[in-house]
Amino acid sequence: MHIPDGYLSPQTCGVMYATAVPFWAVAVTRVRKIIGGRTVPLLAIFSAFSFAIMMFNVPVPGGTTAHGVGGTLTAIVLGPWAAVISTSVALIIQALFFGDGGITAIGANCMNMGVILPISGFLVYKLMAGRSGPLTQRRIIAAAIGSYVGITLAALAVGIELGVQPHFWSTNGIPDYSPYGLSTAIPAMLLAHMLGASFVEAAITALGLAYMQKSYPEILMRGQKPTADLQDRARRFNPWVVVSALAAVSAGVIFVAGLVKGDGDLSRWAGLNWSTVKGSDVLETVLVSAAVSAVVLPLLFVALRRAPAWRTPALVFVGILIWVPIGLIAPGGAFGEDQTATQAEVSAAVAARQTGDNHLFEALPAVNRECACVPTNLANVTFSKHTLFEGYQPPWVSSTDSPWRQNLGYQFAGVAGMGALLAIGFALYRFGRWLIPPPPPDWRTAGD
Questions:
Q1: Sign (positive or negative) of CA dihedral 364, 367, 373, 376
Q2: In angstroms, rounded to a whole number, what is the distance separating the alpha carbons of residues 369 and 361?
């Protein structure tokens, strides 16, 4: 869902920045009013969580891959305006340091995933939850539905933004930017999410909320002190039945939709060519993640023995980072993020197709096959191609390296990204503590 540089016109990018800025301003104002001792650390933690989730690409029906965002879960736990800030910060870090989403398109990506997604998801959640208590299974179902709607609406917005480009910005019939018209971009984005990524987002949100209900009910109770009654209710509450059911339904729908897209052929599941995936690469990737898990997770468990409240979240976060490279196994790429071929390559492919040979044309990136051309300005904006961790890989790892090197490079990049977000949160927290000193002691009790 991240829009790269060059796919949107400068006019569109400007409009999206102008649209996002008021939401950022309101979010900062609202969050500053409620900021407290735990708010900033939680913002950093949820921002890091969103970052990690967005690294985890999964194959979805439509011949592409997609990812969750986690914005609705943040909105439910911390409020929609806090979710605007935390998700936007994660997206900005991704663009500046990892080249995931263009720098010119930060406004658009933040508007789609950082504003539309959490706010719409939260509103649907509140509507579905009604007057039910914060520790009820209805809340979990409402969260799943809200997150499904939120990310689907965000995908629709991306489809519209990409789809209007060739209608407004073309030269002599050749698109200047994204060549995908509305009739292509909207169905592609909606199909990939309504039958794939949106179910993943729903499952992540349901699982995350269930964990919060069970382990941190006081946060969901909006600051209410953890009384004995509250702790007893949390112990008796069992959210995992409904979570397991939602996860099973999500997996089933995605599998069936992928099977339909592949015409019943498992080797073409979701419209992807799985025959190109080497078994040795899969085994190597899995073994590396398993080996790192076997070493790192037990050490982390022991290291946090004196901080049990942080142990499970830390293990979950690190576990996600260790296993996110599994998404690299899937063939294909995200819709609308193809690198364009050269004009000579496209001309040769078109000429060959006219003689009845389609091999060269079918080998072209989808962005070139869409219009049988090279969009005029698509490759002219390359800021995000010179980032520190381009493609979530450190400078010493390339796409031609062996799977185990790419796996470890992906993990290293993930640790760097999450570390940056947590460091930013900690720095803001310390600055806030310095800026707003604690109240003076009560003179009536100072001598006690």
A1: negative
A2: 7
